[in-house]
TrEMBL record:
Protein name per Swiss-Prot or TrEMBL: ROK family transcriptional regulator
One Pfam family per UniProt: ROK
Region (Disordered): 60-82
Family to which this protein belongs: Belongs to the ROK (NagC/XylR) family.
InterPro entries, per database record: ATPase_NBD (IPR043129), HTH_MarR-typ (IPR000835), ROK (IPR000600), WH-like_DNA-bd_sf (IPR036388), WH_DNA-bd_sf (IPR036390)
Basic and acidic residues composition-biased segments: 60-71
Top-level division of the source organism's lineage: Bacteria
Stretch forming the signal peptide: none
Gene Ontology MF, one: DNA-binding transcription factor activity
Domain HTH marR-type: from-to ranges: 17-67
Amino acid sequence: MIHPRPAGQHTVRRHNCALVLGAIAESSGLSRAGVAASTGLTKATVSTLVDRLAAASLVRDEGPQRRDGPGRRGTSLSLNPDGPHGLGVEIAVDHVATCLVDLTGQVRWSRVSPAANRAQSPGRVLGRVAKAVAAALAEAARRGVVVGGAGVAVPGLVEASTGLLRRAPNLGWQDVDVPAELRARAGLESVEVLVGNEANLAAYAELQAGGHDGVRDFVHVSGEIGIGAGLVLGGELYDGTRGFGGELGHFPVSSRGPECSCGARGCLERLAAQEAILERAAAPDLPSLLGALESGERKAVAAVRAAARPLGTALSSVLNLLDVPAVVLGGTYARLHPWLAEPLREELTRRVLGAPWSPIDVLCSPLGTEAAVRGAAASAVRTIVADPDTFIAASGRA
């Protein structure tokens, strides 16, 4: 029988450091005494750990607390917006996006570069990504901040345990070690590189942004070249046991439909994604489609309404199975929300059994096409906050 060994001093400090930073992140403005009360740690331990976190630019003093009544006011503590930033990267079919997000979740810098990535080799595309990352790192250096972690959003199946991109049908990629490639190509050897499905990371960004009157259970769906969905249950992202969840675009909705890049026929994204809508509307690009919709052109309106039918068919299966009360339209769908929401709601009302007693909300994402790259950066920030001691040690600030 193997007996567990007692926790060493470093393990205890690592755990307590995360407790303290987590308490400050959850309730900005807490004093050291407030942190001690919230975590159960002694005031002396909290004071030592706060000093350690402050030396690493993770927290900062905001001055005396504001409160009424007599007694000594403690010093307010908050996450330091000038501390380590999360670097977000999105590798999409038609663009590469990057952004820098501070510890408080604010986007400090972002850039989107059009790129024809479809059917290009991973090496060629990742070379473009490395240049975009280099520009982001240069911007961070110009601002005097360090990058504490990187998150990468990709349009495909990402194995949660390894970070391997197992398959990206719309890119034509299979079994690509994105973290290793970017560490080697983009100067990210010293930071953790997290890779996730773009739809799941978009849903995570939506959850972090809030803005829907406290909705904590929803499906975030975005339709660009492909269609992805991220599922949030009880305020937590659920991406499946292996990280392969969210592939709404490959739900079969028509047995006689066109062949999909995944090899099947009648997948949702061949009938309701951006390219299908543009083709049906005879519009060359999204700005042209939006102009036609705003002018009330029948063909454009009909194209969007036609996409609502298969989209509602696929989403109704999710809602009937999981009893989720809201759908958030993101990506291109967020821009189409004024014309897509009502026909989609009608389709869901017809198909979701519980709709008569629990009407389904069809909401518009405020993040739109920025959600995936912001979610990627936010995932990197989350890692720093969840394990600050490891960041401190890696950065040489221990």
